[in-house]
Write a structure and sequence with these properties.
Radius of gyration: 14 Å
Low-confidence stretches: none
Order of helices and strands: HHEEEEEEEEE
Mean pLDDT: 93
Structural class: mainly beta
Length: 147
């Protein structure tokens, strides 16, 4: 686990899909400062700086805050937006959506379906078969290579 110390985070599980209801104060105790700002306060890492932006290894991406399975590498595609992008999540309820009108823009925020961590945004300019571009913050993702 790159962003979260599993021993310090009792909410992290790659198998449990139970929705979490954890206070902001508790998240602050168990997440790194950078992950906390992105996951809990919808901060954004700088474009072209995330470790998964030009990462091309087969495997599965998980929520760095809680371990929820989010994306498979076969749905990842190259883009020039500066963040890792996927055309579909693993499960329909693996992510949830919220209107985001911040910064004078009309966007759709993508949150983890298990812990409500901010992951990034989804846009309608992606490739087939979905036409979606899930533009995610690398810091919000953990990765496990395919065995």
């Amino acid at each position: 686990m790159a962003q979260t110390d599993q021993k310090k985070n009792p909410y992290y599980s790659r198998t449990d899909t139970t929705t979490l209801h954890v206070s902001d104060q508790e998240w602050k105790k168990v997440l790194s400062a950078d992950l906390y700002e992105v996951a809990r306060h919808a901060a954004t890492e700088r474009a072209f700086t995330g470790k998964y932006y030009e990462f091309d290894v087969k495997g599965t991406y998980y929520c760095a805050a809680c371990g929820n399975a989010l994306f498979r590498s076969d749905s990842k595609f190259s883009t020039t937006c500066g963040w890792p992008s996927f055309y579909e999540p693993i499960r329909v309820n693996g992510v949830i959506y919220k209107a985001d009108l911040s910064y004078g823009m009309n966007r759709t925020e993508v949150l983890c379906g298990r812990c409500n961590a901010h992951l990034g945004h989804v846009f309608d300019d992606g490739p087939n078969p979905t036409g979606k571009r899930f533009c995610m913050n690398s810091i919000s993702l953990d990765f496990e290579p395919q065995k």
